[in-house]
Specification:
Distance between the termini: 36 Å
Order of helices and strands: EEEEHEEEHEHEHEH
Structural class: alpha/beta
CATH topology: Rossmann fold
Radius of gyration: 17 Å
Bound molecules: hypoxanthine
Length: 262
């Protein structure tokens, strides 16, 4: 049986239908993860679920211990992680409720602890040209068809520090740089996963129009409401994806360290 990790973002604090068999508190060399890892079964898949902001949403994006969260999955023998998160829509045509399977990342975070390799284990430069696992992306898109959940098959995610929302000018600039959606938690989560050879993919739920895209003021209630309205769709999508993912990995993520060491 394969073991898949899911990191839930705002509004996704549990997966319905997931029968929890065990809750694991993990300690890591990097400190504490966001909470206990919930281990359960869904169909033929063992799922390890972690709510990124804590079970009661008390950890803001810039205070999340991304290293501990990802390390914990590795410790639990998880080889693949699906991240679910709320994002603001930048690209023309994207609207709240749309789901994007991300394929590119623009990282604007600068203050976070973003690597497992500070020199003790040698100097590591992982390849990150394609930040999300291509095999997982393919299966997510296929799962969308099977589950009749409409998906946007690509999108560039710009990661910002937060916790404040962006200015209209920042969003305009990100759009010019090629960003389609904006969020506060996608980095360094994605690169940390790659650094320890975990496959990582992103299900990005557009919760609101990003700043300045419409004249309306952005509210947190709007973000939470959009997440709540889409959790059923996301759960169907995840269930179907679990069924489709092959047990053995056929991507390069599993060998990310092979040619990365100096
Ligand atoms: N900006 C940044 N992060 C977000 C947004 C946004 O508009 N919506 C949901 N997460």
């Amino acid at each position: 049986m394969s073991r898949i990790g899911v990191i839930g973002g705002s509004g996704l604090y549990e997966i319905q239908g997931l029968v929890i068999k065990e809750k694991k508190k993990i300690t890591t060399p990097y400190g504490k993860p966001s909470g206990e890892y919930m281990i359960g079964e869904l169909g033929n898949t063992e799922v390890v679920f972690l709510p990124r902001h804590g079970a009661h949403h008390n950890i803001p994006p810039h205070m999340i211990n991304y290293r501990a969260n990802i390390w914990g999955f590795k410790k639990l023998n998880v080889e693949r992680v699906i991240s679910v998160s709320a994002v603001g829509g930048i690209k023309k045509g994207l609207k709240p409720g749309d789901i994007v399977i991300g394929d590119r990342i623009l990282d604007m975070t600068r203050t976070r602890k973003s690597t497992f390799y500070d020199g003790k284990e040698g100097v590591i430069h992982i390849d990150f040209a394609e930040p999300y696992c291509p095999e997982m992306r393919k299966m997510l898109l296929k799962a969308g068809k099977h589950a009749k959940v409409s998906l946007k098959n690509r999108g560039t995610y710009v990661a910002v520090e937060g916790p404040r929302l962006e200015t209209a000018s920042e969003i305009k600039a990100f759009g010019i740089l090629g960003a389609d959606v904006v969020g506060m938690t996608g980095m360094p989560e994605a690169s940390l996963a790659r650094e320890i050879e975990i496959c990582y993919s992103a299900v990005l739920l557009v919760a609101n129009y990003a700043a300045g895209i419409t004249k309306n003021k952005l509210t947190v209630a709007e973000v939470m409401e959009a997440m709540k309205a889409s959790t059923e769709k996301i759960k169907h999508l995840l269930k179907e994806t679990f069924k489709l993912l092959p047990v053995e990995r056929n991507c390069d993520c599993k060998d990310a360290l092979k040619e990365a060491k100096i």
